[in-house]
Design brief:
single chain, about 160 residues, five-stranded mixed β-sheet, about 45% helix, about 15% strand
């Protein structure tokens, strides 16, 4: 009898904790999920340079190890997915990602293409960020920098002004 009473009280406690008064102004039930805005990245540098020339933009090339590189994770999380960077890049940059994953599958063609550009630009570590003008000339090189998206945008702008 004692066990039955404990079980009933436990059930009552569980049910009462789960039934909160719903405020229709803050309830997310039956509302569409919030759309997360992301930057548009392409994977072909020549296409990126062509697009930059057509749209009068600068190319930012991210040499990354997307599934293993700790500094690449930090750059992505602290900069590339932040509203300040997304807003700036959508107006001023063409974003190109050249990925060198360890676990993610890639075609042999993609691996060969990315390796060719890694060698061409002498990239030795990840992440390496190249800033390339609309004519295809490298105008800057950087990597991860602490300080967040707004500071990173200013850092990128410093290459473009020169």
């Amino acid at each position: 009898m004692k066990n039955l009473l404990i079980a009933l009280l436990s059930l009552l406690l569980i049910v009462s904790c789960g039934s909160e008064k719903s405020d229709t102004k803050t309830s997310k039930v039956n509302q569409p999920a919030e759309k997360k805005v992301t930057a548009e990245w392409i994977t072909n540098l020549e296409e990126g340079i062509k697009k930059a020339a057509e749209e009068n933009r600068t190319v930012l090339v991210d040499f990354t190890g997307s599934d293993w590189c700790g500094w690449c994770f930090r750059l992505r999380d602290e900069v590339f997915v932040q509203p300040e960077f997304i807003d700036y890049s959508s107006k001023s940059l063409v974003l190109v990602e050249l990925d060198f994953p360890q676990r993610k599958e890639q075609t042999e063609e993609t691996k060969k293409y990315n390796r060719k550009l890694l060698d061409k630009y002498g990239v030795k570590g990840f992440p390496t960020i190249l800033i390339i003008d609309k004519e295809g000339k490298e105008i800057g090189r950087t990597g991860y920098r602490a300080g967040g998206a707004a500071a990173y945008v200013e850092h990128i702008k410093s290459f473009i002004k020169n």
